[in-house]
């Protein structure tokens, strides 16, 4: 009986090769996906007896009825996502969503960047996920993307290492662009010789905070570490929370010995900021980007046309223009709250002794960050 079955299948395959027909169903040579006609298996002994093969619709029904094979996006949207998976599949998905750290979640398709952090924040606030349907309550995750996540967890695909797209021209250390694109806000920080200024700007190009603080211990004596730490710690305590902190990287040459004290001062303040702002992890998260980044001062200068040779000129005029456009244009490059416009309306006038260069640079760096990121994404 087994021999007869093998001969039957073999004869069909052999006959298909000579007749130009494939499989167990006959289809016309021309046209787009017509209905498949029923075919038969014939006895290899007498070639008279014929056994009908199950119809295409029957096979299609069997295949589509397997749990986890349906496409929920094409089915009845009123059905919960849990209905498309077996209990074992649901348990496997929920176990990973409820227990995996951000680094492991980031390896799942569509969960790179901010989405993995949103899952951790959601389960910390609301408790573990109890149903698959509850995942759509997480910010940035909708019905269709949730299905992709579930299927990726059940059927992980080992991909070859991809070349990371990086903002290497003006960001240090190099960071995968997808992380930067998911940032909801940044704090741009400028270190001066006697003050630190910062600008908190969100992705909607709205200034949330913009101020500076005098640091009386800067460049006093022999760079006493405790004095520097005290001044910088005071600034850090006032900084708003953000996804990234962008610190200006000055372009002072080490060969210019006359400016060596200034360069040593800048590097000291920068190192303390990196140490205080970078979060401390009990376990190293290799897939998470650094929270504190450098942005090249020359890149911001070129973006706003402030470079004269290798030197950068004042950005006060550019900031005044941005403030004016915020009031006069329907869609300005950046939006200022009325209280900040009122506070700084006369701060950047020519000849002003208010010392607003650090404030100007902090704002321009934030604007350049989002605009250069947008340019590199297009």
What is the end-to-end distance? 65 Å
Taken as a percent bin, the fraction of beta residues is: 5-15%
Structural class designation: alpha+beta
Tell me, briefly, the overall form: elongated
Biggest sheet, strands in spatial order? 3-8-7-4-5-6
As residue ranges, the low-confidence spans are 1-34, 53-69, 160-168
Mean pLDDT equals 78
What percent of the residues sit in helical stretches (DSSP H or I)? 40-55%
Give the total of beta strands.
10
- Helix and strand succession? HEEHHHHHEHEEEHEHEHEEHHH
Question: So how many helices?
Answer: 13
**Most strands sheet:** 6 strands, mixed
Explain what this protein looks like in three dimensions.
By secondary structure, this protein is of the alpha+beta class. It is built from 13 helices and 10 strands. Helix 8 (225-238) crosses helix 9 (260-277) and helix 10 packs across helix 13 (357-377). The termini are far apart.
Features:
two-stranded antiparallel sheet, six-stranded mixed sheet, disordered N terminus
In short:
The chain is an alpha+beta fold and 378 residues long.
SSE inventory with pairings:
Blueprint: H1 2-19, E1 40-42, E2 50-52, H2 56-64, H3 87-99, H4 102-105, H5 114-126, H6 143-154, E3 171-172, H7 177-181, E4 185-191, E5 195-202, E6 207-214, H8 225-238, E7 244-249, H9 260-277, E8 292-296, H10 297-303, E9 307-308, E10 311-312, H11 316-328, H12 338-344, H13 357-377
Parallel strand pairs: 4-7, 7-8
Antiparallel strand pairs: 1-2, 3-8, 4-5, 5-6, 9-10
Helix pairs in contact: 8-9, 10-13
């Amino acid at each position: 009986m087994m021999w007869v079955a093998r001969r039957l299948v073999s004869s069909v395959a052999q006959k298909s090769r000579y007749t130009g027909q494939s499989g167990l169903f006959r289809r016309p040579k021309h046209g787009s996906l017509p209905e498949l006609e029923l075919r038969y298996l014939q006895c290899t002994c007498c070639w008279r007896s014929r056994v009908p093969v199950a119809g295409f619709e029957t096979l299609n029904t069997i295949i589509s009825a397997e749990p986890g094979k349906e496409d929920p996006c094409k089915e009845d949207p009123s059905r919960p996502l849990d209905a498309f998976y077996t209990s074992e599949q649901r348990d496997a998905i929920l176990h990973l969503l409820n227990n995996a750290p951000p680094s492991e979640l980031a390896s799942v398709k569509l969960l790179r960047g901010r989405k993995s952090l949103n899952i951790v924040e959601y389960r910390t606030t609301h408790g573990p996920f109890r149903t698959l349907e509850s995942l759509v309550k997480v910010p940035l995750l909708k019905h269709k993307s949730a299905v992709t996540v579930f299927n990726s967890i059940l059927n992980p695909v080992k991909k070859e290492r991809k070349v990371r797209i990086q903002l290497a021209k003006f960001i240090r250390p190099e960071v995968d662009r997808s992380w930067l694109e998911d940032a909801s806000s940044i704090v741009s920080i400028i270190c001066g010789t006697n003050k630190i200024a910062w600008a908190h700007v969100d992705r909607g190009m709205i200034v949330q905070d913009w101020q500076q603080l005098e640091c009386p211990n800067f460049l006093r004596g022999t760079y006493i570490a405790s004095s520097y730490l005290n001044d910088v710690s005071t600034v850090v305590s006032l900084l708003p929370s953000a996804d990234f902190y962008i610190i200006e990287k000055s372009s002072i040459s080490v060969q210019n010995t006359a400016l060596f004290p200034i360069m040593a001062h800048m590097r000291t303040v920068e190192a303390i900021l990196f140490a205080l702002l970078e979060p401390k992890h009990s376990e190293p998260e290799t897939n998470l980007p650094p929270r504190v980044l450098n942005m090249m001062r020359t890149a911001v200068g070129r973006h706003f046309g402030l470079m004269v040779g290798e030197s950068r000129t004042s950005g006060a005029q550019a900031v005044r223009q941005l403030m004016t456009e915020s009031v006069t244009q329907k869609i300005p490059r950046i939006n200022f709250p009325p209280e900040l416009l009122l506070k700084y309306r006369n701060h950047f006038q020519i000849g002003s002794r208010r010392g607003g260069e650090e404030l100007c640079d902090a704002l321009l760096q934030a604007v350049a960050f989002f605009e250069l990121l947008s340019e590199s994404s297009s």
